[in-house]
């Protein structure tokens, strides 16, 4: 009996080893695996430099990154699972440094006295309180008050008196910072953005389009009248040429 042809095992990606760096593909990983098993270091160095050039060709966007070659050599060691033994021109990377996780950032839980001024105002006030030179300290306090007035107008979208700003400054500084009563802060007004009424009025746009349609219609009538005049002239010419 003839032997039955049984298909061999199919090579699926799910049965292959995991791609360590997918941007270089399966072929580069197979090349690196081949280099790892080479017997002599001279051969490994020669083939490793060829693969480095190929990796740079496959990812040209890395050329804009600082230490371009250094990054490629690090990727070569990562693809080999840190098993390749070659003379690298850069320090060898370690798995601990590659997979190092950053420290979690703490969420600020500080209470803000006036949220429309923000935390920055409180930091500026603390800085102004530490200034010892009187003239410089007075300029700093006035700049803080002007900034507070601008922040208040942006939040409330209305005018605010200088007295309210000075009282808030006095409260935030716990009575340590204040301005003289005759000091006038910068004038700040909130202006509502003005839209172009000509472009945003649909009735005007509709009327303009309607007027243009009428003008085109009038032109059509004029062209029709000109055609009628030419026909009348032709009839008169034909009538004048007849002989009775």
TrEMBL record:
Signal sequence bounds: none
Region (Disordered): 190-244
Entry-linked Pfam families: DUF4290 (PF14123)
Compositionally biased tracts (Gly residues): 209-227
Composition-biased stretches (Low complexity): 195-208, 228-244
Coiled-coil intervals: none
Name recorded for this polypeptide: DUF4290 domain-containing protein
Organism of origin: Mucilaginibacter aquatilis
């Amino acid at each position: 009996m003839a032997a039955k042809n049984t298909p061999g095992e199919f090579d699926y990606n799910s049965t292959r080893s995991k791609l360590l760096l997918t941007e270089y593909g399966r072929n580069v990983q197979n090349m690196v695996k081949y280099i790892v098993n080479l017997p002599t270091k001279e051969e490994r160095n020669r083939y490793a430099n060829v693969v480095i050039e190929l990796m740079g060709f496959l990812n040209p966007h890395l050329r804009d990154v600082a230490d371009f070659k250094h990054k490629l050599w690090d990727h070569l060691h990562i693809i080999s699972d840190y098993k390749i033994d070659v003379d690298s021109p850069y320090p060898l990377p370690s798995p601990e440094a590659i997979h190092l996780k950053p420290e979690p950032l703490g969420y600020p839980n500080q209470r803000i006295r006036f949220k429309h001024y923000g935390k920055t105002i409180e930091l500026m006030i603390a800085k102004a309180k530490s200034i010892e030179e009187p003239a410089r300290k007075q300029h700093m306090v006035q700049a803080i008050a002007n900034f507070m007035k601008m922040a208040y107008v942006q939040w409330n979208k209305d005018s605010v008196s200088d007295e309210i700003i000075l009282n808030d400054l006095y409260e935030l500084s716990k009575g340590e910072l204040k301005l003289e009563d005759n000091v006038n802060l910068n004038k700040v007004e909130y202006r509502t953005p003005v839209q172009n009424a000509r472009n945003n009025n649909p009735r005007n746009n509709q009327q303009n389009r309607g007027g243009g349609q009428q003008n085109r219609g009038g032109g059509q009538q004029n062209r029709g009248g000109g055609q009628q005049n030419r026909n009348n002239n032709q009839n008169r010419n034909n009538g004048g040429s007849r002989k009775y």
